[in-house]
Design goal:
The chain is mainly alpha-helical and about 90 residues long. The protein contains three helices and two strands; from the N terminus they run E-E-H-H-H. A two-stranded antiparallel ribbon has the order 1-2. Strand 1 and strand 2 form a beta hairpin. Bound molecules: zinc ion.
Length: about 90
């Protein structure tokens, strides 16, 4: 457990040094991304407000858009160079 005041990644509230779980949402200071998402969702469902210090979690949808965009760029750049291979 940290020996300094730490900010919860799930809810953003400050926690005292010497503690390893958030006093407000129960999330661990060493939680995985999935655990942070779960605790954050539970915290919101019980009326908790996420502070901006909690930071933004990457949503799956954002990665999907990036993947589609990357594939589109690759297609535009690479396709003209590969007609002989594809046919
Ligand atoms: Zn918390």
């Amino acid at each position: 457990m940290p020996n300094y005041e730490w900010s919860c990644l799930a809810c953003g509230n400050a926690n005292c040094s010497g503690t390893s779980t958030c006093k407000d949402c129960g999330c661990s200071e060493s939680a995985s991304l999935q655990q942070i998402k779960t605790f954050r969702q539970n915290f919101v469902n019980t009326g908790g407000a996420i502070l901006s210090s909690a930071g933004k979690l990457h949503e799956d949808g954002e990665n999907e858009i990036l993947t589609v965009f990357a594939k589109l760029i690759l297609k535009i750049i690479v396709d003209p160079w590969l007609p002989s291979i594809k046919k």
